Amino acid sequence: MADDLTEYEFPFPPATEDSIAMRDGAAANRPAGVPESYDQGKSARWSPKAIADVHAMSQLGRYQLRGFNTFSTRMPTFDDLVFVPASMTRLPLEGYRESCETETVLGDRPGLVSNPIRLAIPIYVASMSFGALSANAKAALGYGASKAGTMTCTGEGGMLEDEREASNLLVYQITPSRYMLDLEHLRMADGIELVMGQGAKPGTGGVLLGMKVSERVARMRSLPLGVDQRSTVRHPDFLGADDLQVKIEELREATGYKIPIFAKIGATRPRYDVAIAAKAGADVVVVDGTEGGTGASPEMLLDHTGIPTMSAVRAAREALDECGKSGEVSLVIAGGIRSGVDAAKALALGADAIMIGTAALMALGCNSPRYFEDYEALGTSPGRCHHCHTGRCPVGITTQEPELEERLDVAGAAERVARFLTAMTMEITLLAKSCGKSSVHNLEVEDLRALSLEASAFTGVSLAGIDRPFTW
Ligand SMILES: Cc1cc2nc3c(=O)[nH]c(=O)nc-3n(C[C@H](O)[C@H](O)[C@H](O)COP(=O)(O)O)c2cc1C
Ligand code: SF4
């Protein structure tokens, strides 16, 4: 019997390296002894993206900037939650015969606000600046929102006449940069939004690249033409809760105690930030999750700062409950909301209203399959475009170039926005009725079940089947 240490010899001449190589097999062209990863290149750390990022930064000498929202695949989504409609324990409402209330009131604080905002639906269009958006896009959003019975917001850079005319209800945004802050405009608004942060880039100011600083934008913001604009992040007139309280009071006086004051924050520590904003006197707190859209942001901020919308909603609602402000201070949620289904889930988790940015741009025609050559010139195609920062938007939404802006037909785009908002609301009411609710505001955490441990841990929603939330 041959022992293991005895060298075996074939009864024929030794093989050559050439005769060993498999020319037509998987190991062809790979030097002997080199592992399978040789031709696959699958380093988890040095992925093609990580390599491309170093190449880009080493050539640019700065971080990369772009529009749209995070591309991180690690964010939990509302798809990890499902509704559990009524069957025996609860009674559903008839989808086609029974009604479901959708009216949404923001800032209903007798004594402090004489004209709270009354929306026909629980969704409205987010603050997106004129500058990031074209004037046609702003007008179309305003007309579309008005037709659907809801409102829109100015965004950084002041109030555009076209937008005020188009919007039945318009919230005026005050950003730390104070671009075109105007007392007259303040008094023409239906609400005031103080921005403390955005989900896409919390803790940093706005960015508008020079290509979009047109004559009109430059005039409104008192900026030189065509120069990149980086706005400040801290409001010059308040540093903490005490000063914020004074600022809110000042704004109430300036507007005659008529309109509600909103405080918008990026979702980072919502449990504490929401409580501080509410205690400082805000009538409406807007929490924008990390999936929130932007006209332009350093890409690393999009992917690595802030917490997901889904995890922020419950924390924000609990914060209002804990400081006794629920029912008094309204909670608006934004960031990555794509449909009435997402919106309904956010309402069930505790939001009073939902704000949409990117989805409203899609309804305007963002990423629509037209002007293929112009998408191609940007190195992209319809369905994949995220090039808002370039100012070369093929469909005329995020541009200041007249020949591109003309492509956006205001009437058609406004109608699409109105139809989209109406369709979203129909999705919400269908789900609410299936859960036996006669108002969309009666949706509750108990109407949901979580499909993953993460979703349950983030939201406190019971896990499907075992009907208990995941706890440590
Ligand atoms: C093109 C664009 C411009 C924006 N401009 C502003 C702005 O001027 N001020 C602000 O507070 N937020 C701005 N935002 C953020 C939105 O107000 C909102 O928080 C965000 O879009 C919500 O996330 P969503 O896009 O996923 O719906 C902008 C967003 C986009 C997409
Ligand atoms: S189509 Fe226009 S608005 Fe949409 S992602 Fe591209 S550049 Fe931005």
Helix content: 25-40%
- The CATH class designation is Alpha Beta
Q: Name the poorly predicted regions.
A: none
Attached small molecules: flavin mononucleotide, iron/sulfur cluster
Q: Please, how many helices?
A: 16
Summary of the model, kept short:
By secondary structure, the protein is of the alpha/beta class. It has a single domain (78-459), classed as TIM Barrel (Alpha-Beta Barrel), CATH 3.20.20.70. The protein has 16 helices and 16 strands.
SSE layout and pairings?
Elements lengths: L16 H4 L27 H13 L4 E4 L12 E3 L20 E3 L10 E3 L3 E3 L9 H13 L4 E2 L7 H6 L3 E5 L8 H6 L2 E5 L11 E2 L6 H7 L7 E2 L10 H14 L6 E6 L3 H10 L4 E5 L5 E5 H6 L4 H14 L7 E5 L5 H10 L3 E4 L1 H7 L7 H6 L24 H4 L4 H25 L13 E3 L2 H7 L13
Parallel strand pairs: 5-15, 6-7, 7-8, 8-11, 11-12, 12-14, 14-15
Antiparallel strand pairs: 1-13, 2-16, 3-4, 9-10
Helix pairs in contact: 3-15, 8-10, 11-15, 12-15
The chain binds flavin mononucleotide and iron/sulfur cluster (SF4).
